[in-house]
Automatic annotation (TrEMBL):
This is SEC-C motif-containing protein. Pfam families: SEC-C (PF02810), YchJ_M-like (PF17775). SUPFAM superfamilies: NTF2-like (SSF54427). Gene3D superfamilies: 3.10.450.50. Residues 35-129 form the YchJ-like middle NTF2-like domain. InterPro entries: NTF2-like_dom_sf, SEC_C_motif, YchJ-like_M. It comes from Paramicrobacterium agarici. It comes from the Bacteria. Signal peptide: none annotated.
Length: 134
């Protein structure tokens, strides 16, 4: 991880919980995300922290790239979950429509995406995403 985060700090995913009670165990690989939305939140947190390891571990093998190169000039600052479909503890598939807000040195911007997830055994994995809007 590029950035250290205290267990007592607010989790970057925007849940309102502190990191230690929210995404920390999932990002560190000591717990599985119970839902597709929670995996999405932990992946956003991994982007905010620069944690490529978590992103790779939670990307389904059928679509996972060989490597991920994160842009260190981007600062992720807010996640909005717009809608979830499926992705619960008894589902095999799910989608999460989200808006991730970020800053660069020059501007503020956002990434809006509908991400697809699949559950394999007890673990949820990110499959792919499609941009929403322009």
């Amino acid at each position: 991880m590029d950035e250290a985060m205290s267990e007592a700090e607010r989790c970057p995913c925007g849940s309102g919980d502190v990191f230690g009670e929210c995404c920390a165990r999932i990002v560190r690989g000591t717990a599985l995300a119970p839902t597709a939305e929670q995996l999405m939140r932990s992946r956003y947190t991994a982007f905010a922290l620069g944690d490529v390891g978590h992103l790779m571990r939670t990307w389904h093998a059928s679509t996972r790239p060989r490597e991920i190169d994160l842009d260190s000039s981007i600062r992720w600052w807010r996640l909005e979950i717009v809608e979830t479909t499926g992705g619960g503890p008894f589902d095999r598939r799910g989608t999460v429509h989200f808006i991730a807000h970020y800053r660069t040195a020059d501007a503020r911007a956002r990434q809006e995406e509908r991400s697809s997830f699949v559950r394999d055994g007890r673990a949820w994995y990110y499959l792919d995403g499609a941009a929403v809007g322009a």
